[in-house]
Each structure stands twice: as C-alpha cells, then as structure tokens.
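Throughout this chapter, every protein is written as a compact record of paired, labelled lines. An example of such a record is reproduced below:
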Amino acid sequence: MNRTELLKTLDNRVGPHLAGLLSGLLPRQSAKAPGIAPQRLLLIRPGGIGDAALLAPSLLALRQHWPDARLDILAERRNAAVFDLCPSVAQCYCYDRPADWLRFTRQRYDLIIDSEQSHYLSALVARLLPAACRCGFASNSRAKLFAVPVPYHQADYEIDSFYHLLDALAIPRPAQPVIPFLQIPATAAAQARPFLPPEAARPLVALFPGASIAQRRWPAERFRQLVQQSSAQGWRFAVVGGPQDRPAADAIAANNRVVNLAGQLPLAATAAVLQRCAALVSGDSGLLHLAAGLGTPTVALFGPGIAAKWAPRGPRHRIINHQLACSPCTRFGTTPRCPHQARCIQEITAEEVFQALTDLLTEK
C-alpha cells in the first residue's frame, strides 16, 4: 500500500468519527452564505493534478464576482504546481508540508470552500480553521461540517460539480467555461522553449503514457505502434510526463521522430509544451485535463473512469471508450482491483487512436 492509499484508508476509517465528534463539540454554524463581499477566501483542493485543473474555471468565476478579494488555496504538494497556472491565486499552501501549517492556520477567512468530493481531512481542516462561512460537498457525513452543504453527483461533469459550489453561494458563473482557463507563466514558457523542436508545417503531437492509477494506462507498446503507423503523416511527437513515466517514455521514444521530455520539466513547463502541441493522446489523467484547460485538442482513452464526468468536452476532443459491461468502475477516485486485466483500456488499438487523431488534425 502506497502513501496515498494509506491516507485514504485512514481517512475512511477515522474521518466519520472525527466529523461526528467535531460537529458535536463546536458551536453550530449559521446556514447562510455571506451577505457581503468577503475580503479573504480559501479554496481547499487536495488530490491530483486533474481535480486542481478543473477547479480553475470556478476560480475565474470567483475572481470575476469578487475582484478585490484575496483568494488563497490549500492544496497538496502533488497538485500545488497547477495553481501556478491560475494567476487569480494569491497564495498556495500545502497541508502535507509541515511548515505551511504555521502559516495558514494563523489566517482567518470570511469564506472557506472545500472542493474535495468525499474524503474527510479537508472538511475537518475547514471546520477547525476560523471562518465566517464554510461550504463543501455533502457526499457523506462530512456534510455536517459545513454551513452550506452541497449535493455531489457522479453523473455531473466535474467542472459543473465545482460550479455547483458557487451556485449554492449565489455566485454567478458561465454556462460553459471559457477556454483556455489556464495561463502559462512567461518563465515556464521560456523554460520549455529549448526542449521543443523548431516550428514546422507538420504538427507536433504530445503523448502521455502515465496515470495515477495503473488501470488507466494505455500500454507503451501501443503508443509505439501509433508512432509507427503515423510515419506517412510526417507528424512529430513529444512524450511528456514525470520521472515515474520515464521507462514507458523510453520505450516509446526509440524513434527519431519522438522527443522524450519525461522527467525533464516541471509541471508548468510541461503545460507550456502541451500548449504548443497540435494535440495530446492520453488516458484519463491530470495532463489530459491540463491540455483541455489550455485549449489543446485531445484524444482521450477511457476505461475505468467515468467519461461523462471526466472526459474533456467540445468538438476539439475525441473520446475512445469501449464501454464494457464492467466499466466504469472508479468511484470517488478509487479504482478496485480488476479481474479482467483492465481490458477496457488494454483493448483500445493503435488503429483506433490513429483514426481519431487523423480526424482531429485534419478537421477544419
């Protein structure tokens, strides 16, 4: 069991008891949203890169509604870099960085919005921090920790789920998120530039073989087949990812038309690479959501995950999903062990992806 799985297990076992204890010991909260414009806001966003990226449209809506309010984020080290792409954020703290506890626990906020979908730690932290009002998802007994509990549904597109938090606070938001909703800092663009091939008539396609959950990973061999099948098109490829993706990236990049960037760039600079690309091919992953937020077209490969909730929307995206009877099986970020060797993702062929990519890159 890795660190993330251990924390989830502890959260599920201990969280409900602590939630009941706190709700009984602490004073009752007023079940009203703030009536005046708050001066200080805290958004809590633990979890992975994808959740953080899809929260960005809500951050923009908050900034537009309360342009003078200070907006802070409480995140994790694994997703904090996403908020470098959100210029409306004043400060990002990490609850798994001990030094940050001395900083954010001294703050007092007018409004705390917990965007975590089901786990208890963030809701417990929100209830313990001084605040005039707290809002969060009522997906389980964590609901009693919020003055404004908000229903959460597995069928909702995740950007819309985060918008529902704003709806409950009477904060206007657009019917559709404005694209792009992420912004590349100039320093990240400059850092990525030396790693990119020169501009050319042939498109550059990003490939991401990773995912936080193994069952979501399309095999490296299929990516290699895609590169080989695309030889007549003259497309160039860049494999992106972190150090943990390097073995798969090395296997894919055994071709002179593939630039291997896995493990070489921080997240913001990787986002700058994605913005330069004509498309990204990826499984259900954080980088998929980064690309969508930057306006980069995608070919998204879905199996265990809920495509209706997580797949990028719009005509610039292609979704490949075999929709087997046993999928999707992921709920609240947890994917059970698969007795079928993840057939839902493993059986997607290079030919299917090539056709989707061709369709995407030739569309006028």
About this structure: Residues 3-25 form the longest helix (23 residues). The chain has a mean pLDDT of 90. The first strand starts at residue 40 and ends at 44. DSSP finds 13 helices and twelve strands in the chain.
